[in-house]
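Team,

Forwarding the record for the chain on the shared tracking sheet. I've put the sequence and predicted structure together so nobody has to dig through attachments.
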Amino acid sequence: MSRKVFLVTLLCAVTAFAGFVGWAMRGMSDKGGELAVQQTQDLELPSNSRTAALPLDEGIEQMNGSELAMQEDLSSAIRALTDPTVSERLRLDLARRIDTGLESGDVDYLFGLFRHNPGGDNKVWWVVLNEIMQQMDAKGVGADRFEAELIQLVKSKGAHEVARDYAVQHLALWIRNQGSGLSPESSEAVKMGQAMQAIADTITDPSLSGTSIPGTAIMSLTQASRQLPEEISAPVWQRLDPLLSSMMKGETKADLGMRTSIVQAVALRDSQAHLPLIREMARDAEIDPSMRLTSIAALGVYRSEEDKSYLESIANSNDRFRYAAQSALKKFQN
């Protein structure tokens, strides 16, 4: 790698990590706001996950987009959510009309859409599905089973990767919205623990290695933990942390993106148990440059005075990691 290419890569990575930390500290917007959805790569659908398009009510398919948008009968209109002949904009408009006035059969239909897979390259549908999940959560549609349906989808090996990835994100958002001020002894605490564990299980599932889901899960779990009493979140991390250390070291298989995500996540949790390993990686000249870069940046998140002199020595040198060290030192001033 040439010096010029490395410097460009370094600057981009430092900027990206700084942006992530800023997002993580701010948290997600309120329930009615836009959910930040991690982009996922296009994948070939596994043969056992292909399903036929859901049937449309008789007459719906004959309507044009304007008629659908103006349809007063929401129960009939939502059946057009899966219609590929209806534009993305109009389908999103229909999804935003989802409300608590729906009959139980309509709510069942919407939950059924969580597993709808039109097949092929259908990016529009995943945008619509994300909107459906967001609206149902924000407006309390099917609130008595919302998290249970998401947990089932997260665990469903036959579901499409994008749907499972979205389910992880919305489940974490549900935890964030419901978990604040929760008593560890309450029945709701049991639900929170089950939801946390469902997300954690995607990280330990070897069949998901190489997909977007574990990376989404580690970041989502980190954010969800912020809203929960330690009695609920700590047991999940205690079971997960040995694997995370093994992944960071490269002892357990994990791609580079996952390994750097773990470094970011444990730093944001202020996990002192992982700090010695991150210090070691920040000083390791033989380690993958991206891992060293992320580890140096993570020291700025920890803000331990013990690391300040090392960061200053890097920042004031001609070392190719000096920009990462300079960025980390700025966090000590906050």
